[in-house]
Amino acid sequence: MSTLTQRLAGSIRDKLIAGELKPGERLSETALSASLKVSRNTLREVFRILTMEGLLFHEPNRGVFVSVPSVSSIIDIYRIRRIVECRALAGADPNHPAVGRMRRAVETAIVGRASKDWASVGSANMLFHAAIVELADSRRLSVFYAQVAAELRLCFGMLEDQEFLHASYVDQNANILAALEAGRPAESAEMLDAYLTRSERTILAAFERKM
Fold it and tell me: Mind listing the domains of the chain with CATH numbers?
């Protein structure tokens, strides 16, 4: 895989993580190739990579679309999150540089909640959890988690009421951070495990309502 295609795939993943692309949305080759300043052939290679990752899918004679999560994929994503995030948090050093990134994400989310900018709150939440993974000091794990995070944001995109989805988790993120900064990483990991269980139930309930 070339450096260019890696960079472009990462750019589209970032758009997914930021909530700029929604589940089921059709992607325009013409518009994307123009905005990314690349040839359509290069973009097709990027689409192929992201399709293999399960983030996009192709329909003959219709084009390329953003994937819509299934029940099994939602369950699998949360299983991965418990394994990766909870373990990273349980073994974390409260003085790790990523703790500062967690704090900034919480502060951004609080500001976003006050102004009811739920897109900002959602993006800050993604940064908070990416920072948790960084506590593990594994570049490979962080790269892998970027793909999981993109799929996760697609799950979030299934909920029309973003305030309902994100509002309560701002304080929960703050509480997880407070426990870690106080030198109680095991307690922080337990709080995150309960948090993920609630979040998974919310997403699965939203999925069922759309069926």
Answer: 3-66 (1.10.10.10), 71-210 (1.20.120.530)
